[in-house]
Amino acid sequence: MVSIVMSIILMLAACGSQTTTKSDQAESVELTISAAASLTDALNELKAVYEKQHTNVKLNFNYGASGALQRQIEQGAPADLFISASNSVLKSLEKKGFVKDGSPLLLNELVVVVPASGGADIKQLDDLKGDSIKKLAIGIPDSVPAGKYAQEALTNQKLWDGLQAKLVQAKDVRQVLQYVATGNADAGFVYKTDALSTNETKIAFTVDAALHSPITYPIGLVSSTSHEEEARQLYDYLKTEPALKIMEKYGFKRAN
After folding, report:
1. pTM for the predicted model, two decimal places
2. Mean per-residue pLDDT for 69-84?
3. CA-to-CA distance for 158 and 168, rounded, in angstroms?
4. pLDDT tens digits, residue range 99-153?
5. HEC string for 143-161
6. How many CB atoms lie within 10 A of CB 208?
């Protein structure tokens, strides 16, 4: 009789142990955040801070050009949050139902960079026509918002057509930086935040903001997320004072 009772107790204990294990597994969540490449450094720092405060959550970042990330989301790539470098990209996804609750998060500036050592002495867009600039790096305007902003500025300054022979197109702003840093381009258009991330290039000048659309970084929840509660918690956290201070450290400005 005693042995039967002990067996029952052991069975119940085993069941309880299994239940706890399953519960623990259910509480562990991985979130995928598709984000503009220019956010890489700031979000990597935020990842460490957030995961320390939310031990059951792991953040996975998918960095790239906003237009390319848009296509991935439309094609069903897994994502829980999207942070774009283009308001129009996020609005398009929101209109199609792929993203919801879009709202502005950050602001940025467009600058022209040259190699840190021996770079051309240029101070304005018109200087890009000079002989010192033989190759000019720019993000692909159709998919890279920084490239689109640069195209707008050059078009408004009546320089776009005349500079076509010099243009070297890149898949994102980080590749533009790489082209300039390695001497594969004499100058390039990037965000101020990217320019501040390296010592291999330097800012030649800031592009007049009146020449292009406002550089806004909106954030939105991906409608197909299977972790909406945790995704929304991260969405809210990114708008808090501690998170915004980290973003500002990398050169971003608050949208609100």
Report:
1. 0.81
2. 96
3. 19
4. 999 999 999 999 999 999 989 999 999 999 999 999 999 999 999 999 999 999 9
5. CCHHHHHHHHHHHHCCCCH
6. 13
* Separation CA 85–CA 216 (nearest Å): 6
Q: Which helix (H) or strand (E) holds 188?
A: strand 187-191
Note whether 122 and 205 are within 8 A (CB). Answer: yes
Element (H, E) at 208: none
Q: How far apart are CA 163 and CA 23, in angstroms?
A: 60
Contact 218, 84 (CB under 8 A): yes
**DSSP sequence for 47-106:** HHHHHHH-TTEEEEEEEE-HHHHHHHHHTT---SEEE-S-HHHHHHHHHTTSEEEEEEEE
How many Cβ atoms from other residues are within 10 Å of residue 175's Cβ? 21
Measured CA to CA, the distance from residue 159 to residue 7 in angstroms comes to 85
Three-class SS state of 186: coil
Burial class, 228, CB count within 10 angstroms (exposed 0-12 / middle 13-18 / buried 19+): middle
Q: What is the mean pLDDT of residues 79-93?
A: 96
Q: How far is CA 85 from CA 39, 50, 61, 209, in A?
A: 9, 22, 15, 15
Q: Give the model confidence (pLDDT) of 3-29 as tens digits.
A: 554 454 445 455 554 444 443 444 799
Edge to edge, the sheet with strand 136-139 lists 167-170, 136-139, 187-191, 110-115, 201-206
Is residue 166 a contact partner of residue 135, using CB atoms and an 8 Å limit?
Answer: yes
Q: Look at residue 155 and give its three-state secondary structure.
A: helix
Contact 87, 105 (CB under 8 A): no
